[in-house]
Fold this sequence. Notes:
The protein is an alpha/beta fold. It has helices spanning 15-24, 61-70, 83-88, 90-106, 143-155, 181-191, 209-221, 223-226, 242-252, 277-280, 290-303, and strands at residues 4-8, 28-33, 51-55, 73-76, 113-119, 131-132, 161-166, 168-170, 194-197, 203-208, 229-233, 239-241, 257-260, 273-274.
Amino acid sequence: MPMNILVTGGAGYLGSTMVPELLAAGHDVTVLDNFLYQQNSLAHVCHLKSFRIVRGDIRMEDVLLPLLRRADVVIPLAAYVGAPLCARDPFGATSVNHTAILMMLDHLSPQQIVLMPTTNSAYGTGDENNFCTEDSPLRPISQYAIEKVKVEQALMQHAKAISFRLATVFVMSPRMRIDLLVNDFTYRAVHDRFVVLFESSFKRNYIHVRDVTRAFMHGLANQDRMLGQIYNVGLSDANVSKRELCEHIRKQLPQFEFLEAPVGKDPDQRNYIVSNAKIEATGFKPAHSLDAGIEDLIKGFTMIRNTRYGNV
């Protein structure tokens, strides 16, 4: 059934892939975005009558609330994403990632559905085996993860909400980010042909950006049994260390070299293995592998050689 969907931050890395698919599924989609990065990542859907775009800031009630009232479904993607960007502007990060989301939740009606990305970086270092399920204790390290945990707690007080704890997202998007780990390492492999690794044994989980869209659409289609729940969203065969990630890249770029740093440590101390069994039990399976995504990135980085596509 077609729905009115509000996507905040819909011109960003996730949204510029997700919004066209929501439109193709027959929904009416309104995007609210401040176009911080001067992107035109949704230019290819402007011809559709079912698409509406609003330039504005989610922190402004007079901008957000009229759009919120029209929506059957809200997908809040607008955020300061990642630890480095939050560290650069902590006050802006808190106002967008925490305060504005709580304001939005306060104005939702009980009938409105919220599908929200949170983060599995909240697990920090997992248990003694670094293994995490949705019931594992949360040990967020960065400001970004800490505020996502707080928002998720408030989100789950809303009866018609789903929290998708996303793994580290990767691959090409119309609003590209090079600073994400798989994207970053592949970019370095294409252009520099080497990378220096800090704490190369640290593991995390990954998910293709198109599978993020598929997870949200799966939640929308199966809301009767998924609402009110938290789900990890990642590739179950891609709980890999930084060294293992580099080995995946070298399979396709044999000239790529990676070296262990003899001193120093990674400021990002995340290290965990994530179970995605809960969402898989609902019938969702990722369609895109880590290796396929790396292949796509190699093609994309043949066209890109600069740093203006990152968040920092």
